[in-house]
Write a structure and sequence with these properties.
The chain has 382 residues and is mostly helical. The chain has helices at residues 2-30, 36-53, 59-73, 99-117, 135-149, 156-170, 182-206, 212-223, 234-266, 270-286, 292-310, 316-338, 345-348, 350-364, 368-381; strands spanning 76-77, 84-85. β1 (76-77) and β2 (84-85) form a beta hairpin.
Length: 382
């Protein structure tokens, strides 16, 4: 099973990288017409879409999580006026909520707490056979994963589930998905790696990360004084592509040779394994540069995320809101300043008008009354 997923991940990463190499130049040409109104609406669309797709039950929970992240992004120095906002006199908060501690707290801490609460270890199923995958589901999943990754704020989990669902509906052995189907394994595993290349397209061209890991990469870019967006140096894009190709080959080789080792690591008692993960998470947050305050932030966000999980609120929209909130705040207000407070600026520009309609359509599609009216109109026209 690990051999198959390693091979599928390798091919999926190459598919996403090829798409990145091809489409990023096309989008760079189009990005010259993308200004503050378009960026504001695109950031809002990413937050809403993330909340819509990642909600387990009520979509409103995903939107609430995204808006919480958006509110967190407002903390710190005002990007336009350089005035402190919601810092309560704490100098650490002048720089706002740091991305890495928020990521570590939101995703790692709840998993560690939940893992320590449930110490039972389940049985490991085994798949026997060759590791050379079937290329038909891999090609399909690679295209799906790349397309989903290019949507701002969605991420690898959604790409994997969408590909899995499509594969289950079109496969001849769809009834075997979840019961040891190799095709089901490849559908999700290929798509979540192909999503990586797709998520880098809006990140490099527009400065809008397509997933939480892409958001972490955006933080790394900024630490090294690289500003993603329409003015990015083309050499940076080529270097990213080269690094992804080398990384995928390394992942494939190391994955095959270390599969048995990792299986033995997973058999370690969680009481030993999870504290090691906690130590590594702490080191990752502390290395950002904020000192002990970053650890307080990580733990605070982690405990909030844990209770949000208990209430079935998705965490990814919160992180996406923190990442895209600053972009939305700055570009939305700059658009109003330039237009003299005229909100018509979000409708008068063609690309902005399309994005505004997408945001409105996404919201209306999740309102039961609006959906009933749409179905009624559709039946009348039919």
């Amino acid at each position: 099973a690990l051999g198959l997923t390693t091979a599928g991940s390798f091919i999926g990463t190459l598919i996403g990288t090829i798409a990145l190499l091809v489409f990023v130049w096309v989008l760079l040409l189009l990005s010259q017409n993308i200004a503050s109104p378009e960026k504001a609406l695109l950031a809002l669309f990413g937050i809403l879409l993330s909340g819509t797709l990642m909600s387990e039950d009520l979509v409103i929970k995903g939107w609430i999580a995204g808006l919480i992240g958006l509110a967190m992004a407002m903390v710190g120095l005002d990007p336009l006026l350089s005035e402190p906002r919601y810092t309560f006199g704490w100098s650490y908060m002048l720089s706002g909520f740091q991305v890495v501690p928020v990521l570590m707290g939101a995703f790692a801490i709840p998993q560690i707490i939940d893992g320590m609460r449930h110490m039972n270890i389940g049985q490991m199923a085994e798949l026997n056979g060759r590791i050379l995958p079937n290329f038909k589901p891999i090609t399909r999943s690679g295209v799906i994963g790349t397309g989903v990754g290019a949507l701002p704020g969605v991420g690898e989990d959604v790409a994997g589930w969408v590909s899995y669902g499509v594969g289950k509906s079109v496969s001849k052995e769809g009834h075997m998905f979840g019961k040891g189907s190799i095709e089901g394994l490849l559908s999700s595993e290929t798509a979540n790696n192909a999503c990586i290349g797709g998520a880098l397209i809006p990140l490099l061209v527009l400065g809008i990360p397509g997933s939480p890991p892409a958001a972490a990469l955006m933080g790394a870019f900024r630490i090294n004084n690289i500003i993603p967006g329409p003015t990015i140096d083309p050499d940076i894009i080529l270097r990213v592509v080269a690094i992804m190709v080398l990384a995928s080959f390394t992942m494939f080789i190391m994955g095959l040779f270390t599969a048995r080792v990792f299986i033995r690591i997973l058999r370690l008692p969680r009481v030993v394994f999870l504290p090691i993960v906690m130590v590594l998470t702490t080191i990752g947050s502390f290395s950002v540069g904020g000192g002990i305050n970053d650890l307080y932030l990580m733990l605070g966000v982690g405990f909030v995320a844990y209770f949000m999980n208990l209430l079935r609120f998705p965490i990814a929209p919160l992180v996406i809101g923190v990442i895209l909130g600053g972009l939305f705040d700055e570009t939305f207000r700059r658009s109003l300043l330039i237009s003299g407070g005229d909100v018509f600026v979000f409708w008068s520009r063609p690309v902005a008008a399309v994005l505004l309609m997408l945001n409105v359509a996404l919201i209306l599609s999740q309102i039961p009354l609006a959906r009933r009216l749409f179905l009624r109109l559709r039946r009348r026209n039919a």
